[in-house]
Amino acid sequence: MKPTDDLVIREVASEDVEDIIQIFKTVYLQDESWARSALQRLLAIPNYVMLVAELESRVVGYIDYYVLPSIWEKWNEATINYLFIHKDYQGKGIGSKLLEEVVKRADKIGIVELHIATEKGNERAIRLYKKHGFVKEYLLLERVRKPVHKPSPTP
Ligand SMILES: CC(C)(COP(=O)(O)OP(=O)(O)OC[C@H]1O[C@@H](n2cnc3c(N)ncnc32)[C@H](O)[C@@H]1OP(=O)(O)O)[C@@H](O)C(=O)NCCC(=O)NCCS
């Protein structure tokens, strides 16, 4: 039996936020209270879909995506924003399962373009994405500056 045979993938409820924070802690978490409030705010956005993977009732993975209409093309497009697997559960196929679930949901609603981004050096994520058909490459540029004010809690 594969470790992912018992995996349950379901939509996030606000009670899951603490468990998701626990996953972030094993991977990357800059500010716990900010992340907690960010998750609650994302939960309130229509068309922002948040999913968790559960193994034996333990939340071990998180993925989210949003759907927006394209202006260029006559269709909606989707973007995966975050994918995180608990450090102790990486390399067991859970990232693949979460990605497959989003691809399945996107196909079901007729999404033609599904986007996902990661840092250039994240070989592990890049390999995972390519394996799942994310092969067309775009260039995402970023301008970074130190925030001069405390970030506001509203986007
Ligand atoms: C990247 C990440 C999401 C992958 O999830 P995962 O559950 O560990 O991955 P899987 O077990 O499903 O592996 C799927 C594929 O990923 C790649 N992969 C997984 N672990 C790898 C490793 N240690 N080295 C290289 N490639 C790896 C492989 O292509 C693998 O397929 P294969 O086993 O058939 O070769 C997970 O490691 C993670 O959460 N990392 C930290 C956060 C992150 O980088 N998120 C994504 C970008 S924001």
In brief, what are we looking at here?
The protein has 155 residues and is of the alpha+beta class. It has a single domain, classed as 3-Layer(aba) Sandwich (Aminopeptidase).
Order of strands, widest sheet? 1-2-3-4-5
In what range is the share of β-strand residues? Answer: 15-25%
Order of secondary-structure elements: EHHEEEHEH
Describe the main β-sheet briefly.
Answer: 5 strands, mixed
Care to count the β-strands? 5
State the helical fraction.
25-40%
Class by alpha and beta content: alpha+beta
**How many structural domains are formed by the residues?**
1
Measured between the Cα atoms of the first and last residue, the distance is: 44 Å
CATH topology: Aminopeptidase
Mean pLDDT: 94
List cofactors, ions and other ligands. coenzyme A
Question: Rough shape?
Answer: globular
Number of helical segments with 4 or more residues: 4
Name of the CATH homologous superfamily: Gcn5-related N-acetyltransferase (GNAT)
List keywords for this structure.
about 160 residues; alpha+beta; Aminopeptidase; five-stranded mixed β-sheet; 4 helices; 5 strands; globular; binds coenzyme A
Task: Give an overview of the whole structure.
- By secondary structure, the protein is of the alpha+beta class.
- 20% of the residues are buried.
- α3 links the parallel β4 (76-85) and β5.
- It has helices at 17-27, 32-43, 94-108, 123-131; strands at 8-11, 48-55, 58-69, 76-85, 114-116.
- A five-stranded mixed sheet has the order 1-2-3-4-5.
- It has a single domain, classed as Gcn5-related N-acetyltransferase (GNAT) (Aminopeptidase).
- Coenzyme A binds next to β4, α3 and α4.
